[in-house]
């Protein structure tokens, strides 16, 4: 993955009012009522960290590109800097997707912490086969900037933030008044008008899903907001960061019954739904059927167009993959690094009335 430029002291400077970089501007005064509404008749196209297969993940450029590429939702991982600013960033270490190791000025900040039961050392280019031309061009952005990008879209575009590593963050970051990560996270959503149950009138104006791998975080969040929540599921051998349960136990009928009181769906790693061996899909599990039987949506992650993630079953064709997962497996939404490809597939197979009219107009002109 092309790596955004790191300026670790940016967030400290912002506290004292310095402008280390220009922030994304506040949303324009467009009338939300005049925007094309969110489509709800086909599986949602969720841009995983933006159009992260094309541009560096979790950057302004990746999110704007995702909107241009036809995403219904833009997804982000939300972490906190030590001084309490909520930022869009996937890892608790900075090494993987920034150039922090090249800056000796910050060498003294290197630490070792336990993260989800594993000691990690770092400064608390994901995929080398992706286009490196954007290395060093983009910086880390804030949660509020990410929200503002969605609100400024020319049509209604939802947000899909993940409250990332809440156990670790709550251990390391302190907010005034004894607030927790979850409290500050929801306060930010409320500030920008995000509220309402799934498909309610309020929700349709500013659609959002909240996601987390931590079940106790989701149950706590349910006391703070009625926004729909998605319980993320990892490989069945992995333990949750908060309850120390395996995701094998988490996907039991008993647990799905329990969590359905707090969430509208689950977000499984797609290999948990269908195991993979030698790059071929194996016999599917019954996870989707059991989730649907409990009125839980299924939002698997992550779909990519590149060879390492395209199964031989689909002859290296991502469109065949989309067709299989939507029509055969029956998933409700998809996370993809390439929202433009998914949008094209959906335009071809289940176009909206607007897309049909545009297609007819183009046919007449040609």
UniProtKB/TrEMBL annotation:
Question: What InterPro entries has UniProt attached to this entry?
Answer: GP_PDE_dom (IPR030395), PLC-like_Pdiesterase_TIM-brl (IPR017946)
Catalytic activity reported: a sn-glycero-3-phosphodiester + H2O = an alcohol + sn-glycerol 3-phosphate + H(+)
Instruction: Tell me the first and last residues of the signal peptide.
Output: 1-20
Q: Which PROSITE patterns match?
A: GP_PDE (PS51704), PROKAR_LIPOPROTEIN (PS51257)
Look up the record and give one Gene Ontology term from the biological process aspect: glycerol metabolic process
Keywords per UniProt: Glycerol metabolism, Glycoprotein, Hydrolase, Signal
Q: What's the encoding gene here?
A: GDPD6
Q: Which family would the database say this protein is a member of?
A: Belongs to the glycerophosphoryl diester phosphodiesterase family.
Q: What is its EC number?
A: 3.1.4.46
One Pfam family from the record: GDPD
- Full protein name: glycerophosphodiester phosphodiesterase
Describe the location of the GP-PDE domain by residue ranges.
43-346
Recorded hits in PANTHER family, A to Z, give: GLYCEROPHOSPHODIESTER PHOSPHODIESTERASE GDPD5-RELATED, GLYCEROPHOSPHORYL DIESTER PHOSPHODIESTERASE
One GO MF term, please?
glycerophosphodiester phosphodiesterase activity
């Amino acid at each position: 993955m092309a790596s955004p430029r790191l300026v670790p002291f940016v967030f400290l400077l912002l506290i004292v009012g310095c402008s280390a970089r220009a922030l994304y501007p506040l949303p324009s005064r467009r009338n939300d009522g005049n925007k094309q509404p969110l489509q709800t008749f086909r599986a949602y196209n969720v841009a995983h960290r933006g159009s992260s297969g094309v541009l560096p993940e979790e950057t302004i450029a990746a999110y704007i590109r995702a909107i241009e590429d036809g995403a219904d939702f833009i997804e982000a991982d939300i972490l906190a800097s030590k001084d309490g600013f909520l930022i869009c960033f996937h890892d608790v270490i900075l090494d993987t997707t920034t150039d922090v190791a090249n800056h000796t000025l910050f060498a003294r900040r290197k630490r070792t912490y336990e993260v989800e039961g594993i000691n990690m050392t770092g400064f608390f280019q994901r995929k080398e086969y992706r286009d490196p031309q954007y290395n060093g061009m983009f910086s880390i952005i804030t949660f509020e900037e990410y929200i503002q990008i969605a609100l400024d879209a020319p049509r209604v575009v939802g947000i899909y933030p993940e409250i990332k590593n809440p156990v670790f963050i709550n251990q390391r970051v302190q907010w005034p008044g004894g607030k927790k990560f979850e409290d500050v996270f929801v306060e930010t959503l409320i500030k920008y008008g995000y509220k309402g149950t799934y498909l309610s009138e309020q929700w349709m104006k500013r659609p959002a899903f909240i996601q987390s791998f931590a079940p106790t975080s989701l149950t706590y969040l349910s006391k703070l907001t009625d926004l729909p929540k998605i319980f993320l599921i990892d490989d069945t051998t992995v333990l949750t960061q908060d309850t120390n349960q395996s995701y094998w136990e988490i996907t039991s009928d008993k647990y799905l019954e329990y969590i359905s009181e707090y969430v509208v769906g689950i977000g499984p790693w797609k290999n948990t739904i269908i195991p993979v061996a030698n790059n071929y899909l194996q016999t599917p599990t019954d996870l989707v059927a059991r989730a649907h039987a409990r009125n839980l949506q299924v939002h698997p992650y992550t779909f990519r167009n590149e060879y390492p993630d395209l199964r031989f079953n689909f002859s290296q064709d991502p469109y065949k993959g989309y067709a299989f997962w939507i029509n055969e497996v029956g998933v409700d939404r998809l996370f993809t690094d390439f929202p433009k490809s998914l949008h094209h597939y959906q335009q071809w197979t289940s176009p909206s009335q607007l897309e049909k009219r545009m297609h007819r107009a183009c046919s007449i002109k040609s």
